[in-house]
Amino acid sequence: MVMTDPVADMLTRVRNAIRAKHDYVTVPASKIKGEILKLMKEEGYIEDYEVVDSEEFRNVKLYNVKLKYYGGREKVSVITEIKRASRPGLRLYKKKDDIPMVNEGLGIAIISTSKGVMTDKQSRKYGIGGEVICYIS
């Protein structure tokens, strides 16, 4: 099966794992997914992630993502909403002055810019626009 939007697939896997209250989720590895996971870890939305080899297929790398919860016995996810913004059929580009603010600054938008993948706050700081990949709150 051909996957047309690997980033949306990763976000959906994370969303489904959170709803099922799993501790870990495994996603196929790529550079853009690695950058998104790095930003999610830096911003405190996930505990950690690591690259592992697939047991089923050779030469296939996977990310094993440890999800972050709070609340003791009742697992409540740190991520309340994770949503794809730009998609293959409709790319969403924003200028430096039009970069969206998620939940009045409580969430993040992940932007792919000419200087790399960064959060909306970093993008505003450097004065760079780009493609809005996703929103996380």
Which oligomerization state do the chains in this entry correspond to? single chain
Number of helices: 3
Amino-to-carboxy terminus distance = 31 Å
Poorly predicted regions are none
**H/E element sequence:** HEHEEEEEEEEHE
Shape: globular
CA gyration radius, whole angstroms = 15 Å
The largest sheet, given as strand count, sense and whether it forms a barrel, is: 5 strands, antiparallel
Report mean pLDDT, rounded to a whole number.
95
What's the total number of strands? 10
Structural class: alpha+beta
Helix content: 10-25%
Estimate what percentage of residues fall within beta strands.
Answer: 25-35%
Short description:
By secondary structure, the chain is α+β, with helices and mostly antiparallel strands. It is built from three helices and ten strands, in the order αβαββββββββαβ.
Walk me through the structure.
A hairpin with a 7-residue loop joins strand 2 and strand 3. The mean pLDDT is 95. The protein has three helices and ten strands, in the order αβαββββββββαβ. Strands 6, 7, 8, 9 and 10 form a five-stranded antiparallel beta sheet that branches. A three-stranded antiparallel beta sheet has the order 1-3-2, with helices on one face. The protein is globular and about 45 Å long. 24% of the residues lie in helices and 34% in strands. It has helices at 6-19, 31-42, 120-126, and strands at residues 24-28, 46-53, 61-67, 69-70, 76-77, 82-84, 93-94, 108-113, 116-119, 130-136.
